[in-house]
Amino acid sequence: MDAMLTIGQLASYAGVTVRAVRHYHQVGLLPEPERDDSGYRRYGALAVVELTKIRTLADAGVPLSKVDELLKADAATFAEAVKEIDRSLRGEIKRLQTNRRQIAQLAGGDSLVVPPDVVAYLDRLRELGVTERMVEAERDGWILIAARWPDRISEWMPEKFAQLENPRLVRLYHILGEVLDTETDDSQMEEAADILAELAEQADERGELSTDDEAFDDEAFVELLDALVVESDPRGQRILEKMRERGWTGWTRLERTETTAPN
């Protein structure tokens, strides 16, 4: 006597869902059975065997488009096809491992988008009490710099760390962080402009503003970095205006205005 199963029983015996059985029917992997007098599908023992084979191959990572071919293959063809699928799976595993490393970096925050030297610099700013909003603004600038000049980062960072020994620069970071985090009044922006002008004067006296560095000759890139400041927060433009009142212009490349340039 033939054992006739409902689609639900078939799915249960083969370890799949009813929806999977219907999908295998739709794509031609599992033949449609004849229906009983009530119009319901009825399956025999061979259907359980076939469905179990399909499920086993699918669970092993075989694309459904290849399952029918493998089910009908002889031993040699089957073995070669399995090797090809294995090679494909190894490639997919390698890709996924790369993705996992990138996700791990993302969980680490800054390290995904900027080099380790810059990550250390950003962490130092946090240690100095700089607000996270200001650290993020600083990071965004370094993202652009690292994209444009990736080989110069390790050369520039020692000087950046040395500059953090200057309490006036640290104070500037704190003020700019307050400006970003609050509805600030003009007094904070006045102080920021004062410190920027003071630091520019000191750098000029040491001859540090005159440089042959090609990075500062890239006008388009300097303008891009300056634009980032203003786009990130419109109040950056107000600080620039206050800087001009003090005889200086620019964020990335500080320069005296023509009216204050020495003869």
Question: Please, could you describe this protein's structure?
Answer:
It is a single chain. The chain has 263 residues and is an all-alpha fold. Strands 1-2 form a two-stranded antiparallel ribbon. It has 12 helices and 2 strands. It has helices spanning 7-14, 18-26, 45-59, 64-72, 75-107, 116-127, 132-148, 153-163, 167-181, 186-205, 219-232, 235-245, and strands spanning 248-249, 255-256. It has 3 domains: 1-61, Multidrug-efflux Transporter Regulator, Chain: A, Domain 2 (Orthogonal Bundle), CATH 1.10.1660.10; 73-107; 111-256, no CATH class. Helix 7 (132-148) packs across helix 9 (167-181) and helix 10 (186-205) packs across helix 12. The mean pLDDT is 85.
List the keywords.
single chain, 263 residues, mainly alpha, Multidrug-efflux Transporter Regulator, Chain: A, Domain 2, 3 domains, two-stranded antiparallel ribbon, 12 helices
